[in-house]
Design a protein that fits this description.
Layout lengths: L7 E12 L2 E9 L13 E6 L9 E4 L2 E5 L2 E9 L3 H7 L6 E8 L11 E7 L3 H13 L7 E8 L8 H7 L2 E6 L6 E2 L2 H8 L8 E6 L2 H10 L6 E5 L15 E4 L2 E4 L6 E3 L7
This protein binds flavin-adenine dinucleotide and FE2/S2 (inorganic) cluster.
Length: 272
């Protein structure tokens, strides 16, 4: 088996637009080459296009789903086109080859001690939380009594990845910035309105989304005793802890998002 820091080959099975600028890619990797059977929710891959000079550096994408397939694995990635790298990736067709490195980083710390799991997703931040949900479905024994998902987007036609959440969660609460579906406002406000209804000792929050959302959440939870882990995003070059390009400020100094994260305790990060 190759080390997880090695680039493997992945063949595109499908790469389709499921909402404006939002794509779902399925990649086939052979099991002989992969360490994906060990992947845990919150981990990510670095993706590079084979045979092209651009993008030269890999792009980090969270694992959305993984399942065995015909002696190998299908790795699913849910991504939004924001710049040239993700645009190039979105143009790729079935049977084209990618370089894929992973699973990388430290994922969510999944504790069996909480009976209520609260997922808070901002936009494409739903990707790693959906994989976490899938994990709970597969491990029926350690499944919490209640899983509540909060999903916020700018407008309703950008809601992606909800089907799995609706199948697995006890409740899915939606917010849109423009009021086109669900609560009219920020997903953090929607969550804040419900916060007092959760038992702080029994509950754990897992969140992923834009920095501004995570910073807002940190403010809401400042004086609360509820546990909260967040998956943070930084620009990355190597993805394996070698270049220090992804440093994030924490209370004890700096940490590398790619190696020490991307998942951190929300109170560990300096949100300024
Ligand atoms: C651990 C991790 C997991 C991620 N998972 C996903 C995912 O599942 N789906 C998804 O759509 N995106 C995810 N991202 C973000 C994704 O990596 C970036 O959107 C992508 O690298 C942008 O590349 P680009 O060449 O298209 O954009 P660029 O041309 O490089 O940049 C375009 C814009 O996006 C911003 N940007 C670039 N890279 C990042 C980044 N890493 N984090 C935040 N903003 C960035 C830039 O500041 C700029 O405003 C993840 C990032 C990290 C670090
Ligand atoms: S991207 Fe190089 S150290 Fe994190």
């Amino acid at each position: 088996m190759l080390h997880k820091n090695s680039m493997m080959s992945g063949r595109i099975i499908s790469n389709r637009e499921i909402a404006k600028d939002h794509f779902l890619m399925s990649l086939k990797v052979s099991s002989a080459e992969s360490s994906f059977q060990e992947a845990s929710p919150g981990q990510f891959v670095m993706l590079r296009v084979k045979g092209r000079k651009f993008p030269f550096l890999g792009r980090p994408l969270s694992i959305y789903s993984i399942y065995p397939d015909d002696g190998g694995f299908i790795v699913e990635l849910l991504y939004r086109v924001v710049g040239e790298g993700t645009y190039v990736i979105s143009r790729l067709k079935p049977d084209e080859e990618m370089y894929i490195m992973g699973p990388l980083g430290r994922g969510f710390d999944i504790s069996p001690d909480h009976s209520c799991v609260i997922l808070i997703a901002g936009g494409i931040g739903i990707a790693p939380l959906s994989f976490l949900c899938e994990h709970y479905r597969r491990c029926a024994a350690g499944r919490p009594q209640k899983i509540i998902c909060y999903a916020g987007v700018q407008r309703s036609n950008l809601l992606v990845g909800l089907e799995r959440m609706e199948e697995i969660c006890s409740g899915v609460r939606i917010s849109t910035d423009d009021g086109s579906r669900g609560y009219h406002g920020l997903v953090t406000e929607l969550f804040k309105n419900d916060l007092s209804s959760y038992g702080h000792r029994d509950s754990i929050i897992y969140a992923c989304g834009p920095s501004a959302m995570l910073k807002g959440l940190a403010g809401i939870l400042k004086d609360q005793s509820v546990s909260c882990q967040v998956s943070v995003e930084e620009r990355m070059a190597c993805g394996v802890g070698a270049c220090l390009g992804c440093a994030v400020r924490v209370k004890s100094g700096y940490k590398r998002v790619c190696r020490d994260g991307p998942v951190f305790d929300i109170h560990e990060i300096v949100w300024d």
